[in-house]
Amino acid sequence: MKIYIDGKLIDKEKAVISVFDHGLLYGDGVFEGIRTYDGLGFRFKEHIDRLYRSADAIELKIPMTKEEMVDAMIMTLKANKLRDAYIRLVVTRGPGDLGLDPRKCSKPTIFIITYQIALYPKEFYQKGLEIITANTRRNYPLALDPRIKSLNYLNNILAKIDAIKAGTEEAIMLNYEGYVTECTGDNIFMVKDGELITSPVSIGALEGITRDAVIGLARKMDIPVFERLIKMEDIYAADEVFLTGTAAEIIPVVRIDKKRIGGGKPGGITLRLTGAFKELTKSDGVRYDV
Ligand code: PMP
Question: Which of 67, 118, 131, 135 is such that its CA lies 20 to 30 A from the CA of 256?
């Protein structure tokens, strides 16, 4: 397997970065997780735009144009002959000294890992997931805005540990005021009386690319969509709940904190959106040959 590091394709075993890299020392950097489906890069532009927005937000200047970044991803996919892939694209502040000062880091490190996608078990999609509410609250947006997809994922990891301790795969994270924001690695939607509702990202959530795609699909299908504050009582009383993310796509949720959601099985709107999303992945993207 070849890994892209700073312009070169390197064998996996030799693909290393400095222990002085501030991405490692301080989580100082940004990243993306991207999918390709049968030689079609799903929403490459949106992912690359979000990467550069995240970098801007932490005053990290990526020493490559967006076009060059897409070329680097495609070059790595081709080197690994992958038509169906998960891409991890990372830009760190680069190697510096042991202080925080980002000015001491002369050059950002850019690396790209392309991997065969590890799909979640089918039963997650057929039966639906059971999740919990994490004790860990989502980062306060004025301290570290969750809209920045930074390498500093400890907030999410702590909530993931809450989920693991409860024997579940995912956990809902509330914001500092107790409103539902998102899960540790996915956005969250609920359906009530035929309306699709998701939290506004401004309260502390990542603006998910899958979330945006699902909102677009729902609008096309004449399903009313709202970005609205969601309390746990609303979620418990929902007809349907599902999660969205690049790796997960759309996953139904059937139990939250041991309470049954709706009919306890994946709901009609969730299934319709799942079908529409599958179709979208076949047409919406950047074509490449391996
Ligand atoms: N929220 C968080 C915290 C995430 O890390 C992710 C990505 N795994 C998402 C939401 C979903 O975003 P996307 O649809 O862009 O993958």
Answer: 118
Q: How many domains does the chain have?
A: 2
For residue 252, being part of any structural domain is answered with: yes
**Range list of H helices, the chain:** 22-26, 44-57, 66-79, 122-127, 154-165, 209-220, 232-236, 268-283
What's the half-sphere exposure (Cβ side, CA atoms, 13 Å) at 280?
A: 21
Angle at alpha carbon of residue 2, lines to 113 and 23, rounded to 5°: 40
Residue 239 sits in the same domain as residue 156: yes
Q: Are residues 101 and 183 in the same domain?
A: no
Domain boundary among 115, 144, 171: 115
For residue 207, report the distance from its CA to the centre of ligand 1, in Å.
Answer: 7
Q: Are residues 127 and 249 in the same domain?
A: yes
Residue nearest to atom 8 of ligand 1 (CA): 185
Distance CA 279, CA 162 (A): 35
Q: Which pLDDT score, from 0 to 100, does residue 120 have?
A: 87
Whose C-alpha lies nearest to ligand 1, atom 5? 185
Q: Are strands 2-5 and 109-116 parallel, antiparallel or unpaired?
A: antiparallel
Q: Domain containing 105: what range? A: 2-115
Q: Mean pLDDT of residues grouped by 10 in the chain (290 residues)?
A: 98 97 98 97 97 98 98 98 97 98 97 92 96 98 98 98 98 98 98 98 98 98 98 98 97 98 97 98 92
